[in-house]
Amino acid sequence: MNFSSKILEEAVLALSSLPGVGKKSALRLALHLVQDNTEKHIKIASALQKLAKDIRKCTVCCNISDTETCALCLSSARHSQVICVVESARDVMAIEDTNQFKGKYHVLGGVISPLEGVGPSDLSIDLLLERIKKEATEEVIMAISPTIEGETTIYYISRLLRETGVKVSVIARVQS
Amino acid sequence: MNFSSKILEEAVLALSSLPGVGKKSALRLALHLVQDNTEKHIKIASALQKLAKDIRKCTVCCNISDTETCALCLSSARHSQVICVVESARDVMAIEDTNQFKGKYHVLGGVISPLEGVGPSDLSIDLLLERIKKEATEEVIMAISPTIEGETTIYYISRLLRETGVKVSVIARVQS
Question: Considering the entire predicted model, what is its pTM?
């Protein structure tokens, strides 16, 4: 593509590195931003910079957080006897949106997948075990997707938890 | 949506202000950036900041440019006797990609559209007229979309150019 501007070309290249954004969409976005008032892209740029610099993982549950310990872990309104184990921060949002769960969460950061080179040590399983001991957890609910990798992960964690005496349950699923 | 992080929420809001990006896509993009290494979003953020600060319109042809006068206008390899009039910077790219046109361009910045409140004074028509006089242009090629608004714009500019004696032509179109 013939860009009349190097700055535009760089913006298109940067935007097209996003998932699901091809070169054409990136050009459309960049041209929209150029034609638009400048406030919008300064807002986006500063939001992304903050995202890069200030966002971190909660040291307790590994969820995305602005602070060292996330608001969900700090909340006294939530009972810590029940921990819901999920794959990603997105799952926490989905469950929170239902407004039905009042326990705490633990974000694994993925599932065990030998094909993709993800082993148990790449997930926050050790942290989960430590936490269960420290917080005197009574129940662990596995809210992990019913794929082969997901089932393997559930099995792996369940085996580790067998010794601790904690009740392990899996969320209800629609049988397909 | 229940965001566990204010920073994430701001990023999702900012990204969803882009055309064609809904809240769900914005969340997907933001979470991808969080999970990814931070280099990528710093790159995107700085590219967008540059886009906001440093990009400008070429003072001659109104195309997007990094400098006061764009590379196409400065190029001595292009003959200034022919000016191709287009709606937007995207059209310049499209024509440049064909590698067939060796004249210069003039970007109107839209078409006359009373319904959307765009009158001739909102477009760079005055600048085009001045330029034609100054550069001793021989031919103006209208590469404007064949909509009612486009045809109106072509007619309007053609009438203004009638006095100058410049040849006005319209690019070939496929009859539908």
Answer: 0.71
